[in-house]
Design brief:
- This protein is an alpha/beta fold and about 290 residues long.
- The protein has helices at about 5-20, 65-70, 115-125, 135-140, 140-150, 170-185, 205-210, 230-240, 260-275; strands at about 100-105, 130, 155, 195, 215, 220, 245-250, 275-280.
- It has a domain at about 100-285: TIM Barrel.
- Helix 7 links the parallel strand 4 (about 195) and strand 5.
- The protein starts with a helix and ends in an 8-residue tail after the last strand.
- The chain binds zinc ion (ZN).
Length: about 290
């Protein structure tokens, strides 16, 4: 089987598995709560640590308690105590006290589509997450700089978008480290979030991500925009899946993403009109 076919099939399987449990109806739409969306208000504050994906979800932990918790997983902890824990599964959504939705765009930046997405986000004064590939970032440093200027969060999506489960550990490390380096160079900060290509995680990805100070973030709602299902279908998937704490997966590169660009122009104002805050997560609350 060709590599591309294998990856596409795996991607479809993984995406299907994630979306099965993801289509939570929004409910209660219609309230026009659009105040407080200035840049300074975009971060969601919460009083207690969250449930989704966090260790020891049975009982809320104080932040200090959480940080000192023995690291779970595989052998002695590799992280510096108090730094990023080694998780055994990625976060699928973000903690939420209200109606927060996180929009994520993977595989870019691509000068054909990313500027349009940034324009739409700017028009509505919201921030989003871009899980960039180092290779793309290397060739489009101006877009990384623009993301920084406009307050967007840039995550690490590896250098060349490989299937990590097929790689040796040192290659995975190189894929991740090089990407964090190029993001730091052009965005100004090292990524605090990592997303495995195709959603294919393994132990090395969690351990190396933690070593590099990154939390693993997957998604709740997959738009499957890479299959080019039509703009209306993408819009429908986002709006049907919208719910507090949801993380939406779209793509700004890797193929013809004009549908993704158009869809954002439609669903973003609708989400905001429905009372959702479209924002980025804070590391200290996951
Ligand atoms: Zn990807």
């Amino acid at each position: 089987m060709q590599k591309d076919q294998l990856l596409t099939r795996r991607r479809a399987l993984l995406a299907g598995a994630v979306t099965l449990g993801a289509a939570v109806p929004a409910g209660g739409r219609g309230g026009r709560v659009r105040s407080g969306r200035g840049v300074g208000d975009l971060l969601v504050h919460r009083a207690s640590p969250p449930a989704a994906g966090a260790p020891a979800a049975r009982r809320p932990l104080r932040p200090s308690e959480y940080r000192l918790r023995p690291l779970t997983g595989y052998g002695p902890p590799r992280t510096v105590p108090g730094r990023t824990p080694v998780r055994e599964e990625p976060l699928l959504k973000v903690p939420d006290n209200g109606r927060t939705v996180v929009l994520t765009f993977d595989d870019g930046p691509d000068p054909r589509y990313t500027p349009d997405i940034l324009d739409t986000l700017a028009r509505h004064e919201v921030r989003a997450m871009f899980f960039v590939c180092g290779e793309m970032a290397h060739y489009n440093p101006d877009l990384l700089a623009r993301m920084a200027d406009e307050g967007h969060v840039v995550g690490n999506h590896t250098w060349s978008h490989p299937l990590l489960t097929s790689l040796r550990r040192r290659t995975i490390r190189s894929e991740m480290e090089r990407t964090s380096d190029v993001v730091e160079r052009h965005h100004g900060t090292r990524p605090e979030w990592f997303r495995a290509p195709y959603g294919a995680w393994n132990r090395a990805a969690f351990e190396l991500g933690a070593e590099l100070g990154m939390e693993p973030l997957a998604w709740t709602v997959d738009t499957l925009d890479w299959t080019e299902p039509g703009t209306r279908t993408i819009v429908g998937r986002v709006e049907d899946g919208a719910a507090p704490g949801v993380v939406v997966l779209s793509h700004d590169a890797g193929g013809d993403r004009s549908q993704s660009v158009k869809a954002l122009r439609s669903y973003l104002p609708h989400l905001l009109d429905s009372g959702y805050h479209v924002t980025v997560p804070r590391r200290e609350y996951v």
